[in-house]
Design brief:
alpha+beta, ligase, six-stranded mixed beta sheet, 2 domains, 5 helices, ATP-dep_DNA_ligase, single chain, DNA ligase (ATP) activity, DNA_ligase_ATP-dep_C, OB fold (Dihydrolipoamide Acetyltransferase, E2P), six-stranded antiparallel beta sheet, D-amino Acid Aminotransferase, Chain A, domain 1, 350 residues, DNA ligase (ATP)
Length: 350
């Protein structure tokens, strides 16, 4: 059995780990809340992309994980693991489900991210994809770890209307010290700009800032802010540039983003995929061929495809005409979670 890796924590300038505040014991005088029925699903709160982190004592910070957003539902009859798009993936993450069953709680809904850690303790999206057998794969991941960062329901009580500080306190109360397949996503306190700089220096994805006094509100409300070291988003593949010289016959992938209810071109990506990736993409995109491109692309040797495959792409910014700069392909996301496709209407950074 492989030794399970630990996530690398955010560090301050002296190299000291910036961990959560010590867990406080529950107040026995706290009044009991009325029983609330457990929801079948809670639409997730999503983070807005911003170029710089917000500052002030009302904000807490966490590591930004590079994996799959999941909700773990713990019930007396068992555990359900639900994707961001609302699909049941309990069978894809059996180790996480087993660890959740052993937490010793009657009912709970944990919000968090499933990741695979590399040897440096960083979340590795490509490794997660491989552990699941790639896009459309049926493999169950035995390597994934679930980092919980919010608690939406606990012990018969709906917590979504309570402020984040209370939800985090309860989450820490029963997850602190857990080192198995379900762990606590530690929060850090300090200057947001310094934390971001340290995260980037450590090679992390970025940070998330969350307003400690806000309830849990679904959608992109601005209560949560994400700031990335290197930008990475999901884009729809609308075709490819054929090349006899390139491995697999793909010179580059043609990409589009959402713009409200329509699509807009964001350029192409021609690096990052290996020969097996290119061969799979070519074969799959050829089955999706269409003579009518979803968005206009001018050039020779273009093969257009129906907007079905979702690529995770790392890039360094945007050009003046709205294309990705220095883009690199990271892998495919599952089609069930097409809500994750980048929407340029939501981003002031583009």
């Amino acid at each position: 059995m492989k030794k399970r890796r630990s996530a690398i924590p955010l560090l301050d300038e002296s190299g000291t780990a910036l961990q959560s505040r010590p867990v406080r014991k529950r107040d026995p005088a706290q009044p009991n809340l009325p029983f609330d029925p457990m929801p079948k699903r809670v639409e997730p709160c999503l983070a807005l992309l911003r170029p710089t982190p917000p500052e002030g004592p009302e904000w807490i910070y966490e590591n930004k994980w590079d994996g799959y957003r999941l909700a773990v539902h713990i019930e007396p009859k068992g555990v359900r693991i639900i994707t961001r798009g609302g699909h049941d993936w309990t069978h894809r993450f059996p180790r996480i489900a087993e660890a959740a069953r052993k937490l010793g709680v009657g009912t709970a809904i944990l919000d968090g991210e499933a990741v695979v850690l590399n040897k440096e303790g960083h979340s590795d999206f490509g490794a997660l994809q491989r552990s699941l057998g790639g896009r459309g794969g049926k493999r169950a991941s035995t390597e994934a770890v679930f980092f919980a960062f919010d608690l939406l329901y606990f012990d018969g009580h709906d917590l979504t209307k309570t402020e984040l500080a209370v939800r985090r306190h309860l989450l820490q109360d029963f997850l602190d010290g857990s080192v198995g397949a379900v762990q606590l996503s530690e929060e850090a306190h300090g200057d947001g700009a310094e934390l971001l700089a340290n995260a980037c220096k450590m090679g992390l994805e970025g940070i998330i800032a969350k307003h400690r006094d806000r309830p849990y509100r679904s959608g992109r409300t601005g209560d949560w802010i994400k700031v990335k070291c290197v930008q990475s988003e999901s884009f729809i593949i609308v075709g490819y540039e054929h090349s006899d010289a390139a491995r697999g016959g793909i010179g580059s992938l043609l990409l589009a983003a959402r713009q409200g209810d329509s699509w807009v071109s964001v350029g192409s990506v021609g690096t990052g995929f290996k020969a097996p990736d290119a061969e799979y993409l070519r074969k799959t995109l050829d089955k999706l061929k269409t003579k009518r491109p979803v968005v206009p692309f001018k050039g020779k040797n273009y093969v257009f495809a129906q907007p079905t495959l979702i690529a995770e792409v790392e890039f360094r910014g945007w050009t003046d005409d709205g294309n990705l700069r220095h883009a690199s392909y990271k892998g495919l996301r599952e089609i069930q979670d097409n809500a994750a496709v980048f929407d340029v209407s939501d981003s002031p950074v583009r």
